[in-house]
User: Fold these one by one.
Assistant:
Number 1:
Amino acid sequence: MKFVVACAAALGLVLAAAAGAQQPIVIKFSHVAAPDTPKGQAANEFKRLAEERTQGKVKVEVYPNSMLFKDAEELDALQLGSVQMLAPVPGKFGPVGLPEFEVFDLPYMFPDIDAVHKVYYGPVGASLMKRLESKGLVGLAFWDNGFRVMSANRPLHTPADMKGLKMRINSSKVNAAIMKSVGAVPQTMAFSEVYQALQTGVIDGTEGPLSNLYTQKQYEVQKHVTLTFHTISNYVVVVNKSFWDKLPADVRTTLEGAMKDATKLNDQVAEKDEAAAIAAIKASGRSEIYKPTAAEKEQWMKAMRPVQDEMASRVKKETLAAVRASVGATK
């Protein structure tokens, strides 16, 4: 009996009876960010709502800060059933045959967060979510994390200031192309390793959302932060399809509702945390925050925007065209 229960747990189907009572369904939710980031808070809110609304039928175990897996390993773990739920960045889906999710990484694709949401909740977002099923995944939600910024130990006022810098990126061909477009050298690295790499000089800088820059204390080892806001930082909440399909229909419906409300919290926190992170980093005196002038911002956009067409075949031309149509972009 112990062997059966152990195997079931590995698949996320902890449904065996014990002491005459049905055991809760366990959902292991693994992610790489800190608990106080928007993603971390939303994951904990999903746990609270799921357990409360199912009256204990579901137990959600949240594992933040790469406690179970580094970001390069987590999607494999989900497909194998070692965990049941993740919230990876769009670039993680490229290696499993869905590079079109990297359309969200394209530089200066979205003028504001409303344009991003228009894609999430429109035909493009629905189509992307549907494609996950062929990879044994079910897409539950898109989560915001603000727009991304650049940081380094030297001022970054224009793209020319990036030349030769070794810049950490997450796993995305699009993000690599962005760095190359401004003369930097992209370095793919696990999120959990970034602080030490910055501290020891293994990398010269990084790019990412302000909430991560602050909660991971990266600003302590970076003297300059530039508000380029060059691309959106977001996540796709996914669940193992085999696990999801075997859940009772009423439980799935309840979990979908919990995820919808957790998503609302995530997006509210993301907006507030961006402003709070800017204020906290300024107050620390450890890193200078720089907002490009209108002329400088135009230089950043001019340097990076060609990456959209450069990566068109990777993200699928029809996907790029659909996103441009949704946000009203012109070429």
Number 2:
Amino acid sequence: MTAGNTTVKRASFPKDALVLAPMAELTHAAFRRLAEDYGGWDLYFTEMISVAALMNASPYENYYLDFSPRPEKTVIQLVGNQGDRFVQALEKLKSFPVAGFDINMGCSAPPIRKRGWGVELMKDQDGTLRLIEALRPRLPEQTLSVKMRLGEKEDPQGLLAFCRRLAGAGVDFITLNPRIRKDGRNRPGRWEHVALLARELPLPVLGSGDIHDLSTYNYRVDLARPAGVMLGRGAIVRPWLAALLRGCRETPDFSLEVDLHQGARRFLELLVIHQPREFWLSRARRFFFYYTENLRFGHTLRYAMQNAPDLAAVETLINQYFLDHPEERLQVRR
């Protein structure tokens, strides 16, 4: 696939790829640009996009279809369960110069499951394979991938057999969040399942979950040996995390000096550029719910933001925090 001056081979990953996870109301274009400012990721996933909503021409469609800053490194994640809608959505989107498309088979949120989307697709393996087979011929250059969980229960051989069928149907790579459907984020993932798929499948496997810093990254990569890792909330807390991990892999004593105030203000600036006014406050609250974990009194700031009436008030709170705590502005990360 050619996008601008960049050529991306289908299902080609740099060694030990660092991938930004799809997260609703978080991994929009504003955040992706912030992450790119810090050095960028090997691959970006969008927020999940409903194929039903896409075909109904939402008034906010243009914002969801903003794949900047690096469309050639961006994968569009689609969610739904109707094969004809997926096909229509793909026909609408495939002209965008993006790296590929991903089918959400891992979201276990009740509203998603109630519609038969997300992790529910894993229950109908034959139907999911038919969907893959219908989509694959329509993407001669771009990737087609799936992000999944373990399913309803731990069944390593059943999971492996299903993934082999997915590979045979034309999936280019698989991302596994190694939790069963009912597990919450506080339940550690079972990365031995990532190791199994990475060892046995003839395609790249990414592991997702429980990576927040260098030590958790090294532990899980050493355990599973995946083609790469996908990072979610840890990347929102630390938008520079990919640069830090990349640097530490190359230089053991690598460190970054991070200006937390500048990062916060830059995010607000990008939010105004890339999101509709109606989304500014909710997206700011979502981002700072995580980003403020970097601050000693972040819980107080986070609470105040939840009661802020508009984006200007959020910015005022941020500026006042760093006036009161100037020692927290510059931090060295290792």
Number 3:
Amino acid sequence: MVGKKESLEEKRKRAGSILRRLRKLYPDATCALHHKSALQLLVATILSAQSTDDTVNKVTPVLFEKYPTAADIAAAPVEAIEAIVKPTGFFHQKTRSIQAACRLIAEKHGGQVPATMEQLIELPGVARKTANVVLGTWYGRNDGICVDTHVGRLAHRLGLTWTSRDEKDAVKIEQDLMQLIPRAHWTFFSHAMIWHGRRICAARKPNCAGCGVNKLCPSAFTFETPAAKRAKPRPAAGRPGRKAKD
């Protein structure tokens, strides 16, 4: 029964069922960031923080048409990069991260984005989430699970992490998920969870009735809609400790 305290093996079994359902629901799940190279994917992923993929996908073609290589981006005037990436938000910090990462890629890696976790997280602005996107999507390596805001939220709702509901440590959540999902499926699982979070299991108003994994989710149908809250009867008016008149 979903919701009871599970052993590790029981949780793994349920996670496997969730994975199979996600395979049926989103067989083509993949990264929504447009890219033609590892560099483009890396930069797009950095820009996607606190932004939408649609916004990033409008910005990156302009950026890479003008500055196609890591060396080009590193050498570009700061103001020029900022003007292009400004719509993605936090453009000062993102520009610093992108240029610093591209500088290291150009100087240390011959202009090629490295293909190992250790080398990727050495790049400015790159943590495990971004590294997992590049490794899994471009290089086809299942070195981890990408835990963004959607995956973190769904991991809690689906009961696939031992962290508390208010725990935001992506690395801890990733370690929990990696215990439950077979390694061969880590990249797909990341993309499918993101798709499910965007399409069905929204932060404020999840569509539990339309969810293909609701029978496996301990949080299903536990979210009140604004209409349901408004429909709740209010306490009768009256003085404290005195019954209200009919």
